[in-house]
Amino acid sequence: MPDLLLELFSEEIPARMQRKAADDLKKLVTDALVERGLVYEGAKAFATPRRLALHIAGLPVRGRDVREERKGPRVGAPDAAVQGFLKAAGLNSLDQATIVSDPKKGDSYVAIIEKPGQETVAAIAEIVPAVIRSFPWPKSMRWGKASAAGASLRWVRPLHSILCTFGAETEDTEIVPFEVDGIVSGNVTYGHRFHAPAPITVKRLEDYVASLEKAKVVLDADRRKEIILTDARNLAFAQGLDLVEDEGLLEEVAGLVEWPVVLMGSFEERFLDIPGEAIRATIRANQKCFVLRDPATGDLANRFILVSNLVASDGGVAITAGNGRVVRARLSDAAYFWQTDRGSLPDLDTFRDSAEKLGLDLAKPLDQRMAKLDKLGVVFHAKLGTQGERVQRIAALARELAPIVGADPDKAERAARLAKADLPTEMVGEFPELQGLMGRKYAELQGEDVSVAAAVEEHYKPVGPSDRVPNDPVSVAVALADKLDTLVGFWAIDEKPTGSKDPYALRRAALGVIRLVVENGVRLGLTQVANDADLLSFFHDRLKVMLRDQGARHDLVDAVLGEGASANDDLLLITRRVAALGRFLDTEDGKNLLAGYKRAANILKAEEKKDGEGAFAAAPDLHLIAEAGLIEEKALAVALAQATPKAEAAVTAEDYEGAMAALAEIRPAVDAFFDKVTVNDPDPALRANRLKLLNQLRQATRAVADFDRIAG
Amino acid sequence: MDPTRSFQGLLLTLQRFWAERGCVVLQPYDMEVGAGTFHPATTLRALGPKPWRAAYVQPSRRPKDGRYGENPNRLQHYYQFQVILKPSPPDLQQLYLDSLKAIGVDLGLHDVRFVEDDWESPTLGAWGLGWECWCDGMEVSQFTYFQQVAGVECAPVAGELTYGLERLAMYVQGVENVYDLNFNGLDGEDRISYGDVFLQAEQEYSRHNFEHANTEMLFRHFTDAEIECKALLAAGEPAAGANQPRHELALPAYDQCIKASHIFNLLDARGVISVTERQSYILRVRELSKACGAAWLKTAGGGAI
């Protein structure tokens, strides 16, 4: 079975686009082949900075012949019918049709249309140009002379040549002939830009990969990654250091080289005064280099790993020196930011009013930055005002929340006032990913309380479901205030998440609130701070999603919320109740009680249909039970009379385990009741009384949860 | 002049290299601009169907990048070497690499890479795709295929190369501090360094840009330039029903657009433009540049028939 080899050779493709482009190429070409009935055995796509390649193995030489019969009118039918048939079947005259005889219906025409299977080569020659012309690059461009015309070819960067061969393993391959905007397909590729720029003639995948390897091109991105990682670890190890691994950077760097050569460079130790995160951020973002750590101290070392694309004639000395020079320049910048941010702003006087308004101390650098942020009127959201106004609200809310989470109100307010102060710093301006972290460093340096400084960083947390939840009360207060202000604000202006759209990460904020409350055991009535029924139900939904993601039963949330969902604004209690209910339902008592409940509820539903809604709402006649009831009936009545107030009291006391234990006490009586007692007794009085008893069972469980909403 | 010995040698070598490849070698535009792209030889000539090849040095001013002469790598005034080739030739990457060889970069010794960089100038209403060109991890040039300029689709597309001359010079001279660059290639007493020429200017202009530039006056000048640009655009419009509907004042109008852009940069450096205002100033300059681009297309240079 023949194979297809395709290579699209261009100027440098952005690293971040290569992998997806290779996948798209594979999908688009194979889908189009399959659509034409050309099935294949396997396909693999590759990308380097200068090429996308695709290999499809085990294609047929041609597609299957298709034979179609189209029934026509009977012989001698009116001309209009005959003409219609000829047109539909694509025949010129009736001579091209066959006559078939049917003993009942007589003779009629049939058109037999035979389509020979398309040659695979011809199919590829149609498919590939179409795929190239409509390739889904995130951004594409025009170039050269052809771009004077409107509809010229677009590609991610100028496309230079196309290699496309087809053929069986043992034979010579042929070039699949086509042309796209003047680029004629061929069997030629090119090696490494500097090491092997001469044309290379290619037959199929095997010699293609081997020739490229000889020409200093590693075709497979995953192999390039492996080489980089192994060499980087080895270089680090040789110096007694650890590589700070970074998958995102590794992926990017592998997309910047065709022939990775890993080298180690260094910088002056004095730069290690700069916070390690900032060193890493600048070396990573600007130089695409890895940093190294001293395993003994865990601190960064004054070394870095760079990945070049050249086997240099001096062994990489010049390349290392050059990279070192740039890293030093970048670190000089970072050092400048680090120093500037700790000093006074030159135009202090212009933000005195902001400082006063926000209660800031202009003698301190971070306070100055916050005053500046307010003074500049930086907008948080057009409808939600400026960052300064937002900080005012967060500070007030953090103060209000402080007693609830056990934080010192003054510290919470102070931390909130400094929480966004690092936004106008030079360091965060350059590396936005360091927001919070730099604020903490600057807060520490100006002698803020340890908790206040920590809260400046931690108030952004938790960022995602796997991020750590802060537990210092000051951090918890500010983190809650920050997120609640965001949620209440966006709900007020009706910018809620819809479907997959959540541009302000409001789901994440709500999940953050839930985790902060639950993991810190915070009792917070959400309606006190966010009085919006719709927002509350959004919290309930996020809670369900969270529990489901944790493998818990989210139906239990509905059961615990019951009818009065809007009253349940304490997420911690809901969670605890759900957990207690879950544990209870895992026990034998729980399972059986749920089964008994469902049985009682079903019977009640059926009988209420006959007797009317609420027919058994009244309390059962205990005298009747005493006189005429069975022993099991009496036992259930007693059990219910004892357990129901216990369960209710326990729920009121927020002792959910106690409530479950009370319910467990009813279970033997319920089992025995259903075992021995016939509910629908011929005696209408007994029947009604027994149904009333079952209704009481339903009521007893409702105190704890709505068992109707529990699945299974 | 050895390009690895002196700043001027580097500059002259690049000029010669591109002159030999058919470029018109121009002199710097005589106005304050933020980048070589602002020179009408790039911005305006990139528009319209006429082929164009030009190369020139452009002193560029970025008021915000001033460091009072204390940072070895940052300057508020520096030189760009600008090449524009329209339509972009198929071997533009190779031409660029050849130019690096010409200024003394050994491509068997140095790691030259093309790293994604989508270029966009919000004030010029322009964007293109291309790369930062890295030499051993240092960005030494910008390489862009213009897709749109002044809000107009480029047809044909021009290729633009922008060399950061100080960085390249530091590289080929092996110097760590820009002020240590040898400017004239001489030694001993006759040696003139980059610092001799520009250090004082960097100190003075940093003071000016950050502390002393009169913002009230600058705001006024911004508005003046904006008004003048619009007035010139209106005055130069072809009369209704004119035989040859040519615009007659596209270039002077564009000068005012350049002026507004530079004043905006100064105001920005002074920190007197808030984030929300910033966007509206950028839009105002962009409106001017778009209108100038449209006017240029109605001139002979813009290919109007």
Word description of this protein:
Chain B: InterPro entries: aa-tRNA-synth_II/BPL/LPL (IPR045864), Gly-tRNA-synth_heterodimer (IPR006194), Gly-tRNA_ligase_asu (IPR002310). Chain B: Its EC number is 6.1.1.14. Chain B: Belongs to the class-II aminoacyl-tRNA synthetase family. The complex is a heterodimer of chains A (712) and B (305). Chain A has five domains: 3-61 and 119-214, 2-Layer Sandwich (Alpha-Beta Plaits); 66-115, no CATH class; 221-341, no CATH class; 361-520, Hypothetical protein af1432 (Orthogonal Bundle), CATH 1.10.3210; 587-709, Isoleucyl-tRNA Synthetase, Domain 1 (Orthogonal Bundle). Helices cover 51% and strands 13% of the residues of chain A. Chain A is built from 26 helices and 18 strands. In chain A, helix 15 (450-458) packs parallel to helix 16 (473-492). The radius of gyration of chain A is 37 Å and the shape is flat. In chain B, 39% of the residues lie in helices and 20% in strands. In chain B, strands 1, 2, 3, 4, 5, 6, 7, 8 and 9 form a nine-stranded mixed beta sheet that branches. In chain B, a hairpin with a 2-residue loop joins strand 7 (138-149) and strand 8 (152-153). Chain B is globular. The termini of chain B are far apart. Chains A and B meet through helix 8 of A and strand 4, strand 6 and strand 7 of B.
Index terms:
heterodimer, A: 712 residues, alpha+beta, Alpha-Beta Plaits, five-stranded antiparallel beta sheet, four-stranded antiparallel beta sheet, 26 helices, 18 strands, flat, B: 305 residues, BirA Bifunctional Protein, domain 2, Methane Monooxygenase Hydroxylase, Chain G, domain 1, 2 domains, nine-stranded mixed beta sheet, 8 helices, 9 strands, nucleotide-binding (chain B), Gly-tRNA-synth_heterodimer (chain B), protein biosynthesis (chain B), Gly-tRNA_ligase_asu (chain B), ligase (chain B)
